[in-house]
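Hi L., both proteins are below.
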Amino acid sequence: MAQKIRLLNDEEPTKAEVLQRKRSAKFAPQAGDRIRAAENCLFSLLPVKELSRLAGEWYDACSQAMLHGNYGPIEKWVRSQSEKATEQGFAPKDLRQLLLICRDSAIELDGWNRDIFSAVDEATEEVLNHLHPKPPPVVEEAKVEQPEVSENANLTASSSEPEERGAERRRFVRNRLKLPIRILCPGAAGHEMTYTKSVSRGGIYYESYRQYEKDQVLKINFPYWNNPGAINIEYPAKVVRIDPLGEHFWGVALDFQ
């Protein structure tokens, strides 16, 4: 009887791990879609499969903290993503927004307990504050008496909000994200490895010493990770513009198909 109980106990972690993988596999694409739809987070410019991968890794790391009290994986995940974000042109607020979307998705879609999850929030915030310290509060100078404000002043004040939103949209469109990519041209030998100059929802722009042709279809690993165990996803992309930048040097605009 003792032997039977021992065997059942030995099998239990395996069953729990299988269930957790299933929940992670279901959560990842749903959270990826939410990140992709976010208008105030530059991570949304990444392909949805890449966002699903990020969300899945975040979920698995948080599960270790929630189920086993092991906060090492989530702290490591935050540090790793912060380093990559800094290298590639994302702002700290983009990473915070990414984490917020993942957190809210886990609570709303997977039923995570908000109160219990607060411990993960604290661990995450501690790492973020260490990596990106918040500037000290600005001490306000003595106020100078202002002239009387007209009755329409509230309209003037409220108009600044659309301007801020417009500035955010301009930041979103005119991004300069430096993401690693690998380009494969069907029928050509070898591949090209470089970095994007800018990224949009539908494509990328990069500079190349190789000459491509307009309407040519390439295969792109975007982003391309060369660390051990990395999963790189390949996308077909069409050359929509070629800009001569100098002798044997071109700017290439691609649209994902």
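That was the first. Here is the second:
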Amino acid sequence: MYNVDLTAKFAVVTGGSRGVGFHIAQALSTAGARVAITGRNADTLEDAAEEIGEHCHPYVCDQKAPKTIQEVSEAIVNDHGTPDILVNNAASISAGRAVVDLPLKAWRETIDTNLTGVFLTTQAFLPGMIERESGDIFMISSMSGKKGDRGWAAYCASKFGLQGLSQCLQYEVRERNIRVMVVNPSSINTDPDVGPTEGAGLHLHAADVAATIVHMCGIPRRTLIRDMDIWGTNP
């Protein structure tokens, strides 16, 4: 891998207070980037930002609320400028209900968070990236964006939609030197990364997804990894 130095970069990670988003924000910060994280719970955000370090800044944001997304995006740009790196990670998981029994409220909550929220967040930061003619936009999708499974209709639909959004966006912005990169993890372990790193029965770890994001930020800008599948080797 390249030795990635992100000292001059500013990143935004949605859903960055816990789980995969926290590991991504932490890895970007460790590589030198200033980071803004968003999430719905102020206390959890504050704790995460304190753990990540002094160059991590928390912003409360509900990815289902269009007005809040716009207000928070404007606040972030006013405070720190247009991000060099945007990681659309925040997601809602609605599973365990067959289509025939799936309430419209659950469907809408998942689509609003996982797809519409990504669209609005990206749209809010995109003008600055276009003006600067540079930027990396990561879409944290899932293998559920490539294959359906029973009981996961809303989640799969949102992630399949994310693939379409990302591909269309890439064609629109690639001539402005903006990269749109979709990351599709398999099942993820989000616990602290203190266990073994190889052997049977180990799922993909959130820290591995984070390391992949940092690496993708560091590859030459002439190069685009449009769609990245990441699996546990021997789960």
